[in-house]
Amino acid sequence: LSSxxxxxxxxxxxxxxxxxxxxxxxxxxxxxxxxxxxxxxxxPDLTLLFIMAVLEVLRLYLGSKGxxxxxxxxxxxxxxxxxxxxILSVYFLxxxxxxxxxxxxxxxVLLFTYGLESVLKVVAIAAFVS
Length: 130
Description:
With 130 residues, the protein is mostly helical. The protein has one domain (4-129). It has four helices and no strands. The chain is elongated and about 55 Å long. It comes from Balaeniceps rex.
């Protein structure tokens, strides 16, 4: 009953998130050097990025474990954590101090994968329950 497309998406999303994290970190450093980035906003942006990284590792681990063991609880918890990741992604897309076009592109891709993953998680949970 495990979902192969969901497992592939977990793998792809894990690879993409490494790129996302490094690109976002590099852009924050770039923005702090090129623009007049207020010091009061630099540390919250970095803190939120690292919180998002921790959530992402936990989300992918629980989702993959739940899918492979065909258990609803870890997969459902991963779905709940996805909501937090979506909120943080929207923060970096809309509410960040400076938003570059590259921020918009990489966050749009991340939000798309979150949406697709969420649909596949719901389908997998429904399959496990029945």
